[in-house]
């Protein structure tokens, strides 16, 4: 029985030691917040964040986003290229961790692709990194051209463009038989359809 109590006390003391060591490793007055806070920014834009007693900041991948400490309260996050990175901010409250998601401006990409395709009946949308092409073209090569242009802006292209021949196709040749009395004549009229 005494042995069981002794082992329980040793276990409890070990647990307390580990808890205290963990608290000391973080440093006095600091706490780590990795609550999964997420920030989304479009490439080429910035976001101003406010903190209480900002000490320093660091990003995991400076190719995606970088930061500049503006003052003891303000931090500027600049989105550089599409991707994700972590942002660590040290302030009076401790360390806060954020996930920074940098995306491309999809509306601008859709506008540029539409302008380059230059086919009025083709619409361009961009969503979730995918460029979607819709509409009608007269020739298969126009459909392919639209897709090639879109693929220069995204690896993921959904080409829903359909190929429809001209709305006013050339009429077929029509053969007319003319009967006069007992004589029969055949006349071929190119470019005249059955409707007249």
Tell me what you see in this structure:
The protein is α+β, with helices and mostly antiparallel strands. Among the domains are: 29-103, Immunoglobulin-like, CATH 2.60.40; 106-163, Histidine-containing Protein, Chain: A, CATH 3.30.1340.30. The chain is built from 3 helices and 12 strands, in the order αβββββββαββαβββ. The chain has helices at residues 2-26, 106-117, 140-151; strands at 32-42, 46-50, 56-59, 65-69, 74-79, 83-91, 94-103, 122-127, 130-137, 156-163, 174-180, 183-189. The protein has a 4-stranded mixed sheet, with no helix packed on it. The chain has a 3-stranded antiparallel sheet with strand order 2-5-4, with no helix packed on it. Strand 4 and strand 5 form a beta hairpin. The model is unreliable at 12-34 (pLDDT under 50).
Structure at a glance:
With 196 residues, this protein is α+β, with helices and mostly antiparallel strands. Helices cover 25% and strands 44% of the residues.
């Amino acid at each position: 029985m005494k042995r069981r109590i002794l082992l329980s006390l040793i276990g409890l003391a070990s647990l307390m030691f580990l808890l205290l060591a963990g608290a000391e490793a973080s440093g006095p007055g600091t706490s780590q917040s990795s609550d999964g806070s997420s920030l989304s920014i479009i490439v080429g834009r910035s976001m101003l964040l406010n903190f209480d007693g900002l000490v320093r900041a660091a990003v995991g991948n400076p190719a995606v986003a970088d930061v500049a400490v503006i003052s003891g309260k303000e931090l500027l996050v600049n989105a550089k290229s599409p991707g994700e990175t972590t942002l660590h901010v040290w302030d009076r409250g401790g360390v806060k961790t954020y996930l920074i998601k940098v995306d491309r401006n999809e509306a601008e990409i859709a506008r540029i692709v539409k302008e380059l395709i230059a086919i009025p009946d083709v619409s361009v949308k961009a969503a979730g990194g995918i460029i979607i092409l819709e509409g009608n073209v007269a020739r298969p090569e126009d459909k392919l051209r639209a897709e090639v242009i879109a693929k220069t802006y995204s690896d993921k292209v959904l080409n829903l463009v359909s190929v429809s021949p001209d709305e006013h196709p050339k009429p077929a040749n029509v053969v007319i038989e003319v009967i006069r009395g007992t004589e029969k004549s055949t006349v071929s009229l190119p470019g005249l359809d059955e409707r007249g």
